[in-house]
Amino acid sequence: MKEKQIFCWLLGDVMIKYIKKDIMNNQPKILTFAASDPTGGAGIQADIMTQSSIGCYPLTVITGLTVQDTAGVYALQAIKPSFVEDQARAILDETEVSVIKCGLLSSENNIKVIAKIMRDYSEIPIIVDPIIASGRGDTLTNKRMMDLMKSDVFPQCELITPNVKEAAMYANLGDTVIDINLIHKLGGLLQDSGASNVLITGADNQPNDLVVKNILFGSAEPVQYEYERLSNQYHGSGCTLTSAISAFYALGLSLESAVAEAQDFVWQSLKHSLKIGKGQDIPNRFYWMNDEAQDDKTHH
Fold it and tell me: Which of 256-263's residues contact partners 24+ apart within 8 Å by CB, and which partners?
């Protein structure tokens, strides 16, 4: 009897290990094009942490190297386009990718190369964070790069996630006072650029409001999400959001559900943020590992 119990216990342990191994082998894989951020706050490091935390396997193509700290970006060196292409095709030629996520693409020629790769793998959904500047305002994307994003990348995207200022600049409105009616206009203009869905995030808009409003523009009526505005400044919230959407979408959620879950994930990451330097706080993508971190569902 004792031997049988031991055998059953061992069999159960083997089965659990087998099931865990099967889950790990079948994790959805996300291919991210982005620049490196040595602080881990934004860039490819933020993507890796976010996707891993949610349960996906991150694959990466480095588009640029930066000199930055938690206060801002001091230098950007784009990776040679042919090397960007070689990185991507080496992965895509052997690995089944569930979603392609794009952050900072770092140069005009990189955008052209990545757009061609997207066309060659058009069956893979694409989610893009159309970054223009750092949180401090350091310009990372010039006008020509923005034009290429609109003409070559946006029409291939399942979703783009600009903040209000980025949306206005991509719509050629520049710096202007933006109310809710204009945000709705911006959503339509960006959809006219070819993106199937547009999530405009509002943390950068009307900073004195106690509530942050994000709006998803898709095939149906726009969906508005409201979140309690947190008091700190954060480095990498946009990268975290777009990666979280990519991860939940890769796991099989509908796009609208992925957007909703990702915003909750980011809000919790910011609420339990990390202070690693003298500048902005870093999102804590593994907040759920802290026993003291309790989900607060009253924020939206």
Answer: 256/216, 256/218, 256/223, 259/159, 259/199, 259/216, 259/223, 259/225, 260/225, 263/214, 263/225, 263/227, 263/300
10 falls within a domain: no
- Domain assignment present for residue 297? The answer is no
Neighbour count for residue 137 (Cβ, 10 Å): 10
Q: Distance of alpha carbon 83 from its chain centroid, rounded?
A: 23
Contact 236, 36 (CB under 8 A): no
Q: What is the pLDDT of residues 267-297, one digit of tens each?
A: 999 999 999 999 999 999 999 998 665 555 4
CATH of the domain at 52: 3.40.1190.20
Q: Which two tokens stand for residue 192?
A: 């006219």
Whether 13 is covered by a domain: the verdict is no
Q: The domain containing residue 228 runs over which residues?
A: 28-282
Closest by Cα among 206, 202, 208, 203 to 186: 202
Q: Taking the CB of residue 38, how many other CB atoms lie within 10 A of it?
A: 12
d(CA 65, CA 110): 13
Give CA–CA dist 132/170, Å, rounded.
Answer: 9
The per-residue pLDDT for range 176-212, each reduced to its tens digit, is 667 888 899 999 999 998 999 999 999 888 777 899 9
As for how many domains the chain has, the answer is 1
